Amino acid sequence: MLEACSKLGEDLLKMFLDEIEADIIIEVDGKKIKAHRCILSSRAKYFANLLRANKPDKNTSTISLEGFSYPAVHFALCHIYSGAMNIPKDCNISELALLADMLNLETLTAVIVFHLKMHYCHFFHRPCLQCSQGVVECLPLATVCGLNELRDRCIYWLGKNFTRTWPNKSFALLSEELRDLCYNVTFHNLAINTVIDMTLNCDRLLTTLPQLKWTEPIFGMITRLLQDCIHFMAKNFNQILNSEGFLALGKLECYCIEEDIISAIELMTPDVACKSYESVTQLIQLTDTVENTEYAEFTQNFVDLLHKISRHSERYLIQNANKVVHCQSWACLAPQVQKRIKDAAVIVFEFEKPTALHLVCPVYKEN
Ligand SMILES: [Zn+2]
């Protein structure tokens, strides 16, 4: 049952449904709907333009709306007369959106957007089974019909909730362009506090996602995201070591992020490497000495991970000693650490002399 938005709307709707003094026919899908020129012209620009152009044959006018179905056109007309907002179940929402766009009917577009947000997007709450599908359905529709605000919200939500929304067939079937826009949102959510969690999620998805034809683009996106996470870690490793996101690993029993962290260590700059080595050394000292604090509650796994990071960072410093000793943060390292790295570097470079000679290693000169 259609509901008019006011008593006036109710009366006008009755006038439409009872065909009182109708003076124009709208033809759709082989059916005829009687309507009123003055109402159509005053409510919808599309009809106003059309009827202005067709003035001469005033008495016989028929407007044909090809390509649309009867339920969509009938509801659009009910809305024009009464402001009705309750879209009937037999009305295809995509078709109605296209019709509203063609008719240039802003109030109907607003009704459709509200309907989509409520029934398809669940007002963008935390993703449930239905809306992770519904938002994906909304996105191309919003794009085609120029519903930009809805489109942007869909993209933002799909990017933000990538762990729940990407591993779905309907998401995989979106155009590459739309998937890329979602990816950009996810990428922009990369931050010191989120990178560890995002890396863990990427690893989890890569191991749990089934190897099927439709998952191929999703594997591609997650692999790309994981690489971006690793590069982000490499750039900011010292800050990440002290972040809540990283320290939260200390409470987890099981995770597989080691390989990613080691890949990030290999991509660090000398400056970040010096600072990171300092940070991890301090963390290890805290776990060794402090009792009955949050640091004492770290799992053995995490303590082992810290030691592994320390070893790999030290190896990086030694292998890149010729650059490391000239970087700004070299001075942050304790003199005994500096000496240990220089001594080890000499051994490494002596050992690798034939290939290392052209590097003109400053460590040689100083010793
Ligand atoms: Zn939901």
From TrEMBL:
<dbReference type="Pfam" id="PF26017">
    <property type="entry name" value="BACK_BTBD8"/>
</dbReference>
<dbReference type="InterPro" id="IPR043225">
    <property type="entry name" value="BACK_BTBD8"/>
</dbReference>
<dbReference type="Pfam" id="PF00651">
    <property type="entry name" value="BTB"/>
</dbReference>
<dbReference type="InterPro" id="IPR000210">
    <property type="entry name" value="BTB/POZ_dom"/>
</dbReference>
<feature type="domain" description="BTB">
    <location>
        <begin position="22"/>
        <end position="89"/>
    </location>
</feature>
<dbReference type="InterPro" id="IPR011333">
    <property type="entry name" value="SKP1/BTB/POZ_sf"/>
</dbReference>
<protein>
    <recommendedName>
        <fullName>BTB domain-containing protein</fullName>
    </recommendedName>
</protein>
